[in-house]
Amino acid sequence: IQQVFKQLFYMINAVALNNLLLRKDVCSWSTGMQLRFNISQLEEWLRGKNLQQSGAAQTLEPLIQAAQLLQLKKKTSEDAEAICSLCTALTTQQIVKILNLYTPVNEFEERVTVAFIRNIQKQLQERNDPPQLLLDFKHTFPVLFPFNPSAITMDSIHLPASLNLDFLNKV
Asked: Which residues cross the membrane (predicted)?
């Protein structure tokens, strides 16, 4: 069950983040607030179902950081440093794309300046990020089956003749 929810939450993360990276109309402060609220609801549900150890919450980390990126101030070099230290689960390309797509929804917000984005790129140039922008939502985690040893020893097993396993020899 834990592995199923980890996979499901990864797919939620990938689809939501890819939509965020492809749609200018959803890159705003208010969307960041909505995303963070919805993610906290998912995390609360995981805690309620006792699935914290499943790794499902960790698969949402890029989406959480994208939501926080949308909510942070984006003006000074201190803001740029905060973004660089906060967004460790996002690639440089993803951070820059979200900043380029950021759209103010009211007159109190401002667009992200080109100089600020260049400052971010300069600070993140030493990262060895993969060159991909979008997440692969078809990625599947390996299924792990726990080993539970049997209390029955092999020499106590009786094989019925009806199975026609005469070629097996007890050693």
From this structure: none
- Cα separation of 58 and 2, whole Å? 13
Q: Per-residue DSSP letters for 124-151?
A: HTT----S--S--TT--PPP-------S
**What residues contact residue 25 under an 8 Å CB cut-off, 6+ apart?**
103
pTM of the model: 0.84
Q: Which residues contact 170 (CB under 8 A, 6 or more apart)?
A: 155
Could you give the CA distance from residue 10 to residue 138 in angstroms, rounded to a whole number?
A: 10
- Is the distance from CB of 70 to CB of 28 less than 8 angstroms? yes
